[in-house]
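Page 47, continued from p. 46.
Same chain as before, 148 aa.
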Amino acid sequence: MRKILVTLAGGLALSAMASTALAQTSGTTANTTKAQTVCADCGKVTAITMAEKKGEGGALGMVAGAVVGGVLGHQVGGGTGKTLATVAGAAGGAYAGKKVEEKAKTENVWTVSVRYDDGRNASFEFTQDPNMRVGDAVKNSGKTIVRR
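Result:
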């Protein structure tokens, strides 16, 4: 009888150890799986700002403005006055042409700030409304971001 009880107690002890080992292994597997599903390039939108980015005036605007201004200035006065009016018209036209070109090249820029799940921060610029809101879940897609 005593031999049966010792055998039975030993069997129960082995069964309990096996169950504990199985539970510990299952927990580790579940934690490992959970850790592997974390997205390294995923985050949330923290801010969106829109600003007007001024265009740059170049030689084209200045030259075109100078020509138009010079022609208009040449229509005024006579002799030395005509020469001064032509030069002043060309200078004023060049300045005006540069400003017109700057205005034509001005564009709206949206800056979207993202905080990644691992704590990093980044900003992305868009020349069109990205149609995102603060709090949207996003992920990297090449050199930009898209909603998840």
